[in-house]
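Appendix B. One record, verbatim.
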Amino acid sequence: MIRLQSVVWLAALAAALTATTASAASVSLSMNLTFNTPGNSLSGGTWKVVGKADERGLSAVAMRLDNINFNASGFLAPAGFEVREFATMPAGGTIIEIVEGDDIFSSKTLDVGVIGGPFPSSYVDAPGLAPYLANPNLGSFTGGVELAGGTFNAGVVPTWVSALANVFSTGGGQPAIAASVQQTVRTVVPEPATLGLGGMALVALVATARRKNS
């Protein structure tokens, strides 16, 4: 949960995140969904937010997501992001705000989320990962950064509410500047052959059960 000792940092973050940027700095965020039953959006599953950035990389990000389960083990940002906070918005509601970022009063961690940049990344898009429903295609995130993850319940699908982000500018990495943010939701689209095999397996299972009961 958001703690009192982060109030100063969060106030500085809020000022930067709401500032008007004079640059074309940009950040893209993808919420990747894995359904418990492939192709069944009501089966529950897991979610993971990954990001990519330009300039000298992410400085901070604030995300509000709906219909997710999240706890402190879900912070996936690099160790250089010392600030990791979350809270339910509003209290008792279903929207969770997740804030992660570099401690602006400490040393700076540059190039986080810059694809092809010097900051190490092991994130790779899963084969077949594609925009879910009408969400935009923001290209590959391979080489980007994993930020947060968790689960979601059967009967609901996680959605974006809002997102804000800062990046370090190319001029030596400071100061952090507000970036435009694009969001998408993606999932692995099952191949028709896979769905067909699943259907045949289900038919075979039902047939076997009927023979045992007859």
